[in-house]
Design a protein that fits this description.
This protein is α+β, with helices and mostly antiparallel strands. It folds into 3 domains: about 5-95, Beta Polymerase, domain 2, CATH 3.30.460; about 105-260 and about 470-475, no CATH class; about 290-465, no CATH class. The protein has 17 helices and 15 strands.
């Protein structure tokens, strides 16, 4: 449905009846009206929707509709010249599909949009915008934003508005007013940690999507370069982190991990600004850990994942998800991802696989996240692959089911798994066996204290918390 009610409310008085008729005559699969439209009488009002919706509008309004293709997308313009004071409404095929994760191009535009918003308000509007309507009414500001993010909709305008309030609260009284999203400091720090510490994926060390710097980033880069110059020993990453913590506190450099704001206001949480203390570790020791591994589809999911609920610490509660990297494809390894409770759209983050495997080894557990070591078909299920066949997995299930919640009986396990291998998505069965094996290994930790510590370590790996990780703030 999208923002139909918002659009009708926002529409000029004499356009309301027409728009109400449009949504009455066709049930849209996707509907995103541009609520930043300035109600110009010479410029079309753009409504993004799916291709099926564009075609339906074209068919229904055939006598007054004009079809075209702009930027590789189909558009239909409804001529409103007769009887209306406005040019018309453009129904445009959207690049984004509602309910799906944004693609890399859309994510890049969202991050670039945040950079633009931060720099604009810190350099031009320190008083901020008290309402979202005032935010969208600044024509100079909106024109600049749309050059960066042409498809920005009301959902993301709301996110940007909430973000700008928090950014002003944090940095209005500092000299940080420039942000690097690509190039500049982002390229510098990514190359520095790769060349000096062998960390090929910057996010495995610091998940910042954008970097705020004071003045010219050249001075910041020079300072960090001097920290690691000529040294590649194992302690240098700790030295780099220590220098960056000092720069963060001095408002010289701040890394920001951007997550989609899900609450009424944007939240801010700092990570690794101080060396990790025992008291802080204790805040992430959970005395209630519930694990769910369903094998049959439920009303809430297709049983593709395992859920670990970390509860009742003195700090934040988290949900942990273990599932395939891509749940629609075969030959996938698992990913281990956390999410803070109470911020449904804000991910905690993914744990680096090598770090997870190292943690398992440190606890005397034998697990490699390697799909090649698991059956891919029903015939494979009966064979010994990496020392395991269906009888071994049945024994795993018997052990694990005594300690976790499942939705099948012990006697059903083999039948359910065989049905999954016989389905059109046998890779779901492979993933479930990988998850089962992982949990079976974890439950070999006999000490409650060590078991709790294991999940604390897993959480820290996912949220990039601890002395091995760089300092950053999360805006969510």
């Amino acid at each position: 449905m999208g923002n139909q009610k918002e659009a009708i409310k926002y529409a000029p008085k004499d356009l309301k009846p027409f728009l109400e008729g449009v949504v009455k005559n066709h049930k849209f699969t996707n509907f995103r009206a541009d609520l930043s439209w300035n109600k110009s009488k010479t410029k079309n009002w753009v409504i993004n929707c799916d291709l099926v919706d564009v075609n339906a509008v074209l068919k229904f309004y055939a006598g007054r509709a004009k079809k075209d293709q702009v930027g590789g997308r189909k558009v239909v313009d409804i001529d409103l010249k007769d009887g209306y004071n406005y040019k018309g409404i453009r129904f445009r095929e959207t690049r984004k599909k509602e309910g799906r994760a944004p693609d890399a191009k859309t994510t890049a535009m969202q991050e670039a949009g945040s950079k633009y918003v931060f720099e604009y308000v810190l350099n031009n509007k320190l008083s901020g915008y008290s309402t979202i309507n005032k935010f969208m009414s600044d024509q100079k500001f909106m024109e600049g934003l749309k050059k960066i993010y042409p498809d920005v909709d009301s959902d993301w305008l709301d996110v940007f508005w909430k973000q700008h309030k928090k950014i002003l609260e944090l940095f209005a009284n500092t000299q940080i007013n420039r942000f690097d999203h690509t190039g500049g400091f982002m390229d510098f720090i990514s190359k520095l940690i790769k060349d000096n510490f062998g960390i090929s994926k910057k996010d495995n060390w610091n998940p910042s999507d954008i970097w705020g710097v004071r003045g010219n980033s050249t001075a910041v880069m020079k300072k960090l370069e001097e920290t690691v110059f000529g040294s590649k020993d194992s302690q240098t990453i700790q030295q780099l982190n220590a220098v960056m913590r000092g720069m963060y506190k001095a408002n010289e450099l701040v890394g920001i991990s951007l997550k989609k704001t899900s609450g009424n206001v944007a939240r801010w949480e700092e990570y690794n600004i101080e060396k990790l203390t025992l008291n802080e570790v204790d805040e992430y020791k959970y005395n209630n850990i519930k694990i769910i591994i369903n094998f049959k589809p439920t009303s809430d999911s297709q049983s593709l994942d395992s859920a670990i609920q970390l509860r009742q610490s003195s700090g934040a509660d988290y949900n942990f998800q273990i599932t395939s990297n891509d749940t629609s494809k075969a030959n996938q390894n698992l990913k281990f991802e956390s999410k803070p409770v109470g911020a449904s759209k804000a991910r905690g983050g993914k744990a680096q696989i090598k770090a997870v495997e190292a943690l398992m080894k440190d606890n005397g557990l034998n697990y490699l996240n390697k799909h090649q070591n698991y059956p891919k078909s029903l015939s494979d299920f009966a064979k010994k692959i990496d020392g395991r066949d269906k009888n071994d997995y049945k024994q795993m299930f018997d052990r694990v089911s005594k300690k976790v919640s499942t939705n099948i009986k012990d006697s059903e396990f083999l039948t359910v798994m065989e049905d999954k291998f016989n389905s059109d998505k046998p890779f779901v069965a492979t993933s479930k066996l990988m998850q089962l094996h992982f949990l079976d290994e974890v439950f070999k930790i006999n000490s409650n204290k060590k078991f709790t510590e294991f999940w604390t370590d897993m959480l820290f790996l996912s949220i990039k918390k601890g002395d091995r990780f760089g300092p950053f703030g999360k805006l969510y």
